[in-house]
Amino acid sequence: MINIIWFFILAFGIILGIFTGRGDEISKAIINSTESTVKLAIGLVGVMCLWCGIMKIAEKSGLTGKLAKVLKPILKLIFKDAARDNKAMGAIVMNLTANMMGLSNAATPFGIKAMEELKRLNKKDGEASDDMALFLILNAACIQLVPTTIISMRAVVGSSNPAATIIPGIITTGTAAILGVILCKILQRYF
């Protein structure tokens, strides 16, 4: 549906531009925007490779493992069924740790594994358990210690301080994660 809406917006803009005699301006704008998009994409690839390398070093050095040890006791308090299952808790911890460190590509397989383990523990077939809903909220609103994508994009477009968003990002994502858990726990009582 959204593709249809975007198509009509673009078509309407182009047709309106042609009828108002601004077809050449539209052509120039299209060419300029595609050129800047390619430059941005190429710049992002390089910076993202750098950050992926740094995060891989953090993973190999054991930093993510130490973060996982800190997270495990906290997560055992908020998850009901998964807290008693080492496989499920291990996958949840690894997913959230990878997300916190900005390793979203590495977090995806752990997220899938965590959801499979939570499904195994789920007593209601075809219905999400409370732990599954809570995991989704924590995964979506995960605290970002190193927002690599934002830092990369800011660096590519020439920001004088690309990492200036780290502290506001931690505050914002921390608030979102805490509120998400609180609201999930409140709603679990009623649904």
TrEMBL record:
Domain Nucleoside transporter/FeoB GTPase Gate: 42-154
Regions that span the bilayer: 39-58, 133-157, 163-187
InterPro entries: Gate_dom
A Pfam family this chain is assigned to: Gate
Protein's UniProt keywords contain Transmembrane helix: yes
Keyword Transmembrane included in the entry's annotation: yes
Superkingdom classification of source: Bacteria
Keywords: Membrane, Transmembrane, Transmembrane helix
Name listed for the protein in its UniProt record: Spore maturation protein A
Organism of provenance: Clostridium magnum DSM 2767
Phylogenetic placement of the source organism: Bacteria, Bacillati, Bacillota, Clostridia, Eubacteriales
Designated gene of the protein: spmA
